[in-house]
Structures are given as C-alpha cells and as structure tokens.
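Sequence and structure are kept together here, with a separate record for every protein. A complete record is shown below as an example:
=====
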Amino acid sequence: MSRIFLTCSAKSHVEVTVDKITTLTDIQREKLWEFLRGDAHSKELQAWLYNDSAFENALGGALYLELISLDFESKINVETVKRLIRPLLEVDLKCKCACVRNLDAIDIDVDGFADEFFATLTEVAKPKTDQWWLFISRCEVCGTNWLVAQEEVMNDDFYVQRISDEALRDAQNGKWPTVFQKYSDVLEAAAQIITRDRGL
C-alpha cells in the first residue's frame, strides 16, 4: 500500500493512501481532471464535493474535510486544491489525455510532453481535401478522440480539441467538424488559447 503525504498548510499534513484514491469512479475522476486542467470552474468542483457524498469515501475523510473547508473564492486556495489532488490522480495515469484541455495547444518544445501525449494516439481520419494540417486521432488507452491541427507559421505547435464518437463517425463519412476547417481558423485558435492561458 503506497502513501502520499500532502501539505495543506504550514501546520497541516494529510496522508492519503494510493489504493484509496483508486476507488474514485470514472465520472468522479473526470470531474476532478476537468477542474485541474481548467475546463471546469472551481465553483463547480465545490458543488460536486458537497453534493456527491461518495467523494468523501473515495478521497478519504482527512483530505475531503480539508477540501470542503477551503474558500474556493480565493485563487490561492484553488491552487492549493489543485496541488492536493493532482498527485493522487497522476499515480495511475497511463496517457496524457486527461491533462489536456478540451481546446488546447500542444507545444512540441516543452519537456517532451508532446511526445508523451501523441505516443498513445493513432490517426483514424484524414480529410480527402487539401487540408494538410488537419486529422483526427484516437487514444488507444482511454478512447478519447482528438481533432488535431498542425500550425507551422507562428509557433510550430499542435492545436487539439476533444470530439465525440459521433463527430468522429461523421468525419469518417466526410462531414468534418467546423473547427480548424481553414488554416486561418488554426491561427485564430492559437491566439485565443494564448489569450486565455495568460488571463487576458
């Protein structure tokens, strides 16, 4: 049985067993990741914690109490929550999909993350047009579908968006998502992501 010690404050330490966190359901785990990566507001996480009593059993009483005692209006406390939760979810992470926002940039030059992210992805659809920058990949581990656009003008990055199984089937039948249809759309998405991530 593995244990992780988390410092909640200068005088507070919470011990969490790794086998305890694995009792999270897939839905609970996804809700936590949505919060960690920025796809869900801190108020949403607070509501989930208060309204889903199963969180207490999954997280353990000490960590659960620490979390619901925090003021989620404070940015410092929100970062504390993320610091408390992330190590627990990363223990059994077998792909990087959960870490990536619904619309996100994958920087090929940052700490090898791009290699890790794309390592579990397989290309499953490509437009029959001259949209050389566009394709869809599916994660072989978690089954997430990613609409992927490669940008080679500004940053030489990849821009990705989660899509449903239905959207994947539509694309395979010739009806592609409207996102990234033009190369200018990719550049616009890049600017939006930069603005969002910088809090502008």
Observations:
- Residues 75-90 form the longest helix (16 residues).
- The CA atoms of residues 105 and 195 lie 12 Å apart.
